[in-house]
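Note to self: the last two entries modelled the partners one at a time, which told us nothing about the interface. This time every component goes in together.
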Amino acid sequence: MGDRSWDEFEIIRRFFSRMGSPFAEEIQTGIGDDAAVVKRGKDAWTLVTHDMMVEDVHYRASWMSPFNLARKLSKVNISDIAAMAGTPEYALLSIALPDTLPAGWLEDFSEGLQMTFLEYGVSLIGGDTSRSPGPVMVAITLMGSCGPWGPLLRHAPNAHETLYVSGTLGDAALGLAILNHDPLAAAHSDEEDVAYLTRRHLDPTPRLELGQMLAAKGLATTLIDISDGLIGDLEHLLEGVTLGAEITYDAIPRSPAFTRLAPRFHPTPEALILSGGEDYELLFTSPHAPSELKKRAPLVAERVTAIGKITETGEITVVKDGKPIRMESGGFRHQFHQKGTS
Amino acid sequence: MGDRSWDEFEIIRRFFSRMGSPFAEEIQTGIGDDAAVVKRGKDAWTLVTHDMMVEDVHYRASWMSPFNLARKLSKVNISDIAAMAGTPEYALLSIALPDTLPAGWLEDFSEGLQMTFLEYGVSLIGGDTSRSPGPVMVAITLMGSCGPWGPLLRHAPNAHETLYVSGTLGDAALGLAILNHDPLAAAHSDEEDVAYLTRRHLDPTPRLELGQMLAAKGLATTLIDISDGLIGDLEHLLEGVTLGAEITYDAIPRSPAFTRLAPRFHPTPEALILSGGEDYELLFTSPHAPSELKKRAPLVAERVTAIGKITETGEITVVKDGKPIRMESGGFRHQFHQKGTS
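The predicted structure of the combined assembly is written out below.
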């Protein structure tokens, strides 16, 4: 039948989703959430996540300094803990490095790591180092805890709940488009918008405090961070339920810099907003409408924007100017090919 | 000054050893032991380790099937938990794969993982999947626990204690020499010795039960698994103390297969025994001489061999036929080069 091709979610689902000991009753959530959750007794959970970054897959050395690489790798993992309403604690670092590195590479990388870990209270407790005959590969396993209210999971939202996002969407994807367009110009740009947008891609901000507030005050039913793109991560949120969502396109928050520069660097800014990914903002559902949320938790309300509702339709619809817009499903996925034998 | 070159232990020591939050009092052992130890309350510890395997660095696809790769990756990590006297529990899998894989690769790999995890009671709870523009890279983060007696650490032995090893040494290194010599012949050999030795390299046996018995009965002062080679790992055991060790070469246990085949495949079998590595046997120090150990714990005594003593000399000496033999320090280390700027 020739080659078979899978994306990364399919590989996980098909080969690795139901593996291991049937006796592990402590596993509250395994594969399929932002982080795994292991119950450690009454009101105590260990969260653990693992994310890697591979040169020429997740970034290019032409626009990602070792300092920023360490920061982004750390923050991508911290964001997974934020998306469980947790607190990051311990990290293991895995690095595979080519025989020859540019001058100062290790100094810059370790400085970026140190700064980020100090900022977020993370301790490096272990890891592994190897030679790489190919690209630089770096990965972090991050462990964390959560308060007595427990972790906030991806599943499952209820019909008619309000969909909220933090911050603004599309910035990181537009930042990436600018970096790929002209990395040197982007790095040395004195244009404030360019600096802001590329920083949003290179050095995202995990929404730890927001995640913890949502859980502590019981404001959210489901929570996920936007790494694959709004639609892609919304699909993850809706996995296993027959519900759908309706999003009001014009309600999706975007930054002034995005509004000004998007048309210059991308033919369809809508794609950046809906499927761009890597903003590491939080997406959650809540039984509370915006007015009610503002009453209950003004500090939460001022950080988030209502962008739509969970519906009973089983579909995701995005409405712009009163009409549904066409869109491609899913976010960013790696494609793999395995040679077929039959 | 031209290029600078470091080995992996130096990279860890120099760039990553003192990193992170100063508030983490729960970290009983961080970087520098087989696994990190986080205290979780009275008589409760979380052990966590991370080991990776990179194609053409740790193995060659010509002699390592995806099935064996998954088994070895799992067992190398399980051995780190064994070396803390722990029990493995939860795993995160990290895989970076080239765009095109041989037919059946993922099926074989996941079958090897599943079989090993079931055998050792490990549950897969998370991880990450990426494309690799270079070699296959696989890694596991393994979490575990230990009994109320706590973990057994590498540090620090006392003078005059007896050094013990489990199993036989040199088999895995000789197996590797055979695989590299003629992988096809090794794979299809009907010679029992060849099959045994290559299996010792491809599919090592973590000594979980032995590690747990040593801790439960309070028989060992220090414990480490032999991954870098006897001398290299003995050096790890002696780090931070001014002690040394004297090893009786002829007391080091070796298999009949090793004795028969070593001269055929290697000019200096002593190097395989002393620095070969990857046997994943346990090395420990005990205040009990062999006769006393046999009285206290016959089940332990029958699995281990006394090979020498901790001395006050500050040096490691290996005595063969009554005379110290010359040897190179250390085990297997990756070398890195970073371009110098000054």
